[in-house]
Amino acid sequence: MDAESFLEFASQVTKLKMYPYFDVAHSVLCALHVRDDLGPGALAFSRKHPISCWLSTMLVVFAGGMLSAALLGEPPLAPLKNTQQLVIATAVWYLVFYTPFDIGYSISKFLPVKLVFSVMKEIYRCKKVHDGVLHAAKLYPNAYIIMIIVGTLKGNGASFTKIIERLLRGVWTPTSIETLQPSFTTKACIIASVVFVLDIKSDLISAPHAFVYVFVIGFFIYFKVFSSMILGIHEPMLPFENLICALFFGGIFDYTTKAFKSNKDEKSDTKKKD
Prior knowledge:
The structure is a single chain. By secondary structure, the protein is mostly helical. The protein has one domain (16-115, 127-231). Helices cover 76% and strands 0% of the residues. It has helices spanning 3-14, 21-38, 42-48, 50-71, 83-98, 103-109, 111-139, 144-160, 162-168, 184-201, 209-230, 238-248, 251-273. Helix 1 (3-14) packs across helix 11, helix 7 packs antiparallel against helix 8 (144-160) and helix 8 (144-160) packs antiparallel against helix 10 (184-201). Belongs to the TMEM38 family. It holds the Pfam family TRIC. One of its GO terms (cellular component) is endomembrane system. It is a multi-pass membrane protein.
């Protein structure tokens, strides 16, 4: 494929409409997340507490829009005004939890089906991050940190509302706050937001915007789908994080101090023996 054909392809990708197929893929994976988080008692919980189950699923589906809206001074419930998307999310929730013989859940968990939905979800995620950065840029043209924060929350809001989502199901897990142990999805959304900010607000990236958009999609799909689901690598950035922590956040100095103290203690013990 030559550059001109690829640019045309990339331009078409940026114009993809998320409704209804990508919304379905996003809702399916959100419902699966809630059900898997419930564990072996998921079916019993869904029968006994259907309202709580529905609320927690809707929070996961619309978390990004709600969080970003709240931070930007907009009504947090504004994402729910999209009746079509709300109907899709509710229908998917019902199919995952209440179909006879658990057919809906079994089909959704079937690996080829889940792989297709996961690829669609990452395209959907890229769209959300991109829209979040653009929206924040319109409100705060020179506030780059706000653009990155909003883009990150739009792309992975469910991780930041996990503590509330579980609380709706009667489970209190204060250690599940995303800022304590950020997932790779959050880190990937931060990187994508930074890339979009640099592309929109600076001249550091000279490639056409459509190229950058498709590159971010490829980044999400490779690391979130291929690397995680197929290769089983869930933290591909861990070696780089360890290196950065060692160089810039005191790691190498702590290690040196510990080694020096250990060596000093050994010499002291040797003198005592003598």
